[in-house]
Amino acid sequence: MTLRELTPWRWGGLRRFESEDRPLMDFRRDWESLHREMDRLFEGFFRDPDRMSLFAEPMGLGEVTPRIDLTEDEKSFYFYVELPGMDRKDVDISLAEGMLTIRGEKKLEKEEKGKDFFRQERSFGSFRRTVQIPGEVDDTKIEASFDKGVLKIKLPKTEAALKKVRHIDVKAA
User: Fold this and answer.
1) Of 37, 84, 140, 152, which sits most exposed with the smallest number of CB within 10 A?
2) What is the pLDDT of residues 68-102, one digit of tens each?
3) CATH, range 68-164
4) What does the pLDDT look like over 4-46, one tens digit per residue?
């Protein structure tokens, strides 16, 4: 197909065209379809909070989403929460109805002075993470410690929960 055949003034005034005779219309329809699909993909991407948490701090949205690791042994559950740049006084922990809630606020201020300049940067962000406790815990013996930006929470299991554990022997087939 030549460029002359694509120009609309060469098509004729009242002439009817089939879809294969109208390449610009086909192109426009395909282009609009692609545009709608791209819009749908980007809308879904920015609505998903798990994907957005990866970009929250660099984009300046004021969100801090700490990573939480959960481990367990025979006597306790352990939560490890990564909170770099935070202090223990900026963190609040609560337990209610089998849900552990960790709240905090990160405040970072940098100031730099030189002979010919003064620079001051501030960044703030708060978070709230709520995690369901995977078993029964003795809430009178819960311990929390904060060291080098890592919050460690120890949740001892109740005596009743410890008695419910039954070990099963595995036999060869």
Assistant:
1) 140
2) 999 988 889 999 999 887 888 889 999 988 899 99
3) 2.60.40.790
4) 666 665 555 545 555 456 667 778 888 888 888 888 887 766 6
Q: Which of 74, 82, 78 lies closest to 100, judged by CA? A: 78
Contact 101, 163 (CB under 8 A): no
CB 4 within 8 A of CB 23: no
* Structural tokens at position 139: 């809430």
Distance CA 98, CA 125 (A): 27
DSSP state of 157: B
Residue 78: name the closest of 137, 126, 130 by CA.
137
Predicted TM-score (pTM) of the model is 0.54
The residues, any chain, with a CB within 8 Å of residue 71's CB and separated by 6 or more, are 77, 78, 80
Q: How far is it, in rounded angstroms, from Cα 61 to Cα 69?
A: 24
